[in-house]
């Protein structure tokens, strides 16, 4: 018995040990491992079994509906049921085999069957779990089930399907018969098709805040790989002319900016990273998984693309050998021709999909990070000689980042040229002392300065684009070496050691294109410098385009821009020639390498050159050429991206921050100064303040570059709940004191009792001197995020004097203020800024000279109604002001500062006047001014007669619908041909077509060479002949291509010149009305980005499209010649590909347009935040701007994600069709034709090239359409409103004008053809040398009259200037002989000399005489330093000058022009008493006697001593004559105004010419 037992155990053990080695046990092993891991996973998981709110919400639905919803929807449930049934079928088949099977080795089969049945049973258990459990457990079970079934399926494929592809093997399980294929079908369905096709369940990033899922979040694996989730979008866009952003897929929750911030800021924000590391490594940390996928995809593509040459080699080898001795059947290699490119394109498109997704995310992250960090910086002027003190992040304040606290403070800066208080200037000064000085900056305007704001703007525009272009660095790291290794291996396998000779030669020749590339880099830098110079010139001129038109400078400005353009085009020509040379070297090196390799292979190695060797290796040499070219093009982009990353890193880690964010400053404050005893105190004690923490940088931006320091030597506290004034002369630091309170200046404690305190908890509101408004409605600007209270809001409107202004606008407070408030006057912007502060709930109001931009009447209204009204009562108001006279009645506490930055007195106004005699004398003068100002006709002038009263002044940017029109391309193609288009196109296209033919003949000739080895012995073949003939054909190809390319390049330069010239001429020749309705940013975009697109991308894409079209035609033609039957499938594939392209191009164009439109608001929010940076920080409105930034970035990301993924949608489909064509041709040539191997190889080579180019041709069509969008945008601006063009008959006589006489007959005017008249048939005459004053109420047409005289608006009637009718003159001739000085004169950046004489027509003596005559030198008498000279630098718009200085320079410019007619349009309404006195004296004493002067004013004293006075009302002249004559009419309007005046006697004396001494005194 024991013996029998031992035998049974021995037999069983033997059977078991033998059975376990069978591969069919793999499913059982997998099931055991899966079960262990599954149990371990369940034991470690903490499943939350609590009911979710959604369960309670869905309780009302039936149980079946709730079940379906819990499992992700009907589709998912159906797929799970199908998989469950399939697995049940597998269990049944396995059980059937176990019970009824009759194997030869019964014991072994029984054990295998048991194991297989157990594995299938376990699979069935997992399938049940996926159906019966909640989402988390179901997901884990589903993954385990998929892995188990897939491994089992793979096992059967290897055992039973692969043998069918060979000549020698047979299926191992063929004995199972039909059961085997039933199992294969069930396994394919359950293990392959269901996992590929089942949709995924949406899992929100934040379960507490689920969003509408993006289709990619719920798409199946197959839909993801094929991008099928974009089908609906493509079809929807195909049916519409334009698809809006709302119609594109929603943004996935993991792509929302707030979630990206939470994910990335801990690795990128210097306030959250534990130690400093370069920004690049932070990005790599954030996107490490993505770049691992990218590397894997590139490696996969490199391996997959090797399948085609292997397939070609094996197929041709099959033909050469006749099938003898081969193992694998030829259809497998034909399948390689399909699967290789298809798998390769799947891998590459997933690479592109991933890298573009990274790009969009990185752009959102970097933009928001710079936005957040910019709020921490100290904004100050940095000249070429000053440097910021590096600031390292200190202890992280509570407001560091949103990623830490939902209500964190942060903000955004960028983009607009505005200073810390919103001043429109080229550079940004951090300080009021700088603004108080109102003198010239030492900063060089032309590139020598370090412009902080400009740098921030560049970081989110230029640098972001550069970083984007360097994103493919992993291509050089992974794909290039992988392909070189694989290509070398394959070449060695077919060519032996001759492949290494070829590779060595390639290594020797590679430095040649590298050497050329170094020249290209230098030329590129020079070209960019010339481009920058042109763009700077265009931008500068567009900033003062009104002045250019009013002065008639259009032809000269166009000439200057044309000169810059010629310099740029010259470098573009040189650059393109070098690029052409480098490209051809990259093209020739692989060809030379190939010929040398073949020569060594045949001559030295004495081997036979067969078709299988040539045509398979030729593909590899072409691949190497492509890799070389790509590498040389990518390396400069990678280097530039590295430089941009360095700039971002430097900004984040080395920009000087506010004290609260600076480690050194916060430590110093902690160690010195205990703070005030009362935390509610507002004030300082024993402290100093500077504009930067660095010693050498503590400069105000004044010519003297003196170090400014605000010094509080004792305790200074402002009265709570009272009105506090800060007084002092210019440059004393009044605004600096407010900035010190707000924490904008660097705090230096001077002792243990030092402190600075502003209680933020009660709220702070701030109104800057340079008013800051957003491009929103007036109402939104006032509310500024506060809840709307109608009663309070109406009070604010009334008390801030805005009611009358809003009544003049049809849209009222819903009127958009436009870019930088261009629809508003300076006074209106000041009152809106004030209204914002008054409306806010803040208890503390800091107002920086808000009365400066207002006339006295409005100032008195603000003081009496607002500052003493109920809205300000019990609030603490700190007011900086020059106007002591108006504000003295309300002052409860006065601080007086001296020019040394110290407090001279504090207390009552009387004590301040005692301490400062100059202040007392200034108060006396201001009191006189206030009395005179009561003679204003109707308060501040707001001439709105010509402005269309609509809420939206700025017209919406046109968005073209559908495809780019033929007319746009005709603009480009017509300019290419120039004056001889027929000759150009025939020569260019014919030489290129011949080039393609010879290129095709090259490949055929190699086939001819290999054919010789089939009919001759190797030693009989003249290898030298074939090598030299091949080289000759290549030489002819090079010559033909060079001729074609050079002709094309010369044509593109001509087109760029013509289009740019037409655009500039059109913009300079347009009307003022069009310029008012069109933001400057749009015009600048046309002159910069769109012109750049024509210079580069459009030119390149059009050439590449032509090149690909020619190549495809010749390659398909070659295939058809060899195999005529392939014409139909080849044409069909091309048509199907083109149809796919036609379907998707609408979606692509729409998404591109939406992406472009969504990008501008992102930059706009940046610009608005930077312009009002101090105001935002003062109000604590950082979070509001951050949330707005999130919204705008998310809109851009939504459009960008759709734009990028659309290309993957088309590429997958077209590449698969192209690969199908190549495989079909291969099958036909192998099984259906009698061609010899060389012709088969030639045909396959042509087919591979043709099929590979289909997608590129479609992509180029699309890119051409997108680039053509720039053409379309430019064309829009070539057909805008235009003023009359200059003609030869419009040139006046050389002597004209000899006098300033002016005669107007029945002059009417309107602003638009269908608009109302603003002037009604007025007639008057002015003799040469007369001085005429023009007065009238708001909207009476005063400014319209000046515009009509200059023909800036539509006119009827006649105007004779020195006897010649102005409508017969060219506009530039007319306007160049009239000079107007507007209320806000415009100045150019550059030297004062360039402003007075921009076209270098006068010497310095003339310019200095003009400055002296204008009164500048008399105004500067007594100044020790900081005097303005001809070499002084002027900021853009004169931003570093006071209004008075700008007016003086404008007057000097008028004197230089020596016009006979001078017009002053409210030129002295907003300047101080002293400057006005100087200007009026200059006008009276320095102008020549024959100069006619027209003065528009609302102060009677300004014009009462004129020779004549014109009174306008509603576009009519109601009175005109000498003042004394008009005053005799007791019922006249002028008489009534004088009678109402408090200064009646003085005005009458002026009119009678009897108050000689009073004239200068009353000139204002």
TrEMBL record:
The chain crosses the membrane at residues 26-45, 76-96, 108-129, 141-158, 178-198, 291-311, 331-353, 473-492, 498-520, 584-603, 1025-1050, 1125-1145, 1157-1181, 1202-1230. Residues 925-935 have a biased composition (Basic and acidic residues). It comes from the Eukaryota. It is a multi-pass membrane protein. SUPFAM superfamilies: ABC transporter transmembrane region, P-loop containing nucleoside triphosphate hydrolases. PROSITE patterns: ABC_TM1F (PS50929), ABC_TRANSPORTER_1 (PS00211), ABC_TRANSPORTER_2 (PS50893). Its main location: membrane. Residues 924-949 are annotated as: Disordered. One of its GO terms (cellular component) is membrane. Residues 292-640, 993-1256 form the ABC transmembrane type-1 domain. Keywords: ATP-binding, Membrane, Nucleotide-binding, Repeat, Transmembrane, Transmembrane helix, Transport. The keyword Transmembrane applies. It is found in: Membrane. SMART domains: AAA (SM00382). InterPro entries: AAA+_ATPase (IPR003593), ABC1_TM_dom (IPR011527), ABC1_TM_sf (IPR036640), ABC_transporter-like_ATP-bd (IPR003439), ABC_transporter-like_CS (IPR017871), ABC_transporter_C-like (IPR050173), P-loop_NTPase (IPR027417). Signal peptide: none annotated. Residues 694-931, 1302-1539 form the ABC transporter domain. GO terms for molecular function: ABC-type transporter activity; ATP binding; ATP hydrolysis activity. This is P-loop containing nucleoside triphosphate hydrolase protein. The lineage of its organism: Eukaryota, Fungi, Dikarya, Basidiomycota, Agaricomycotina.
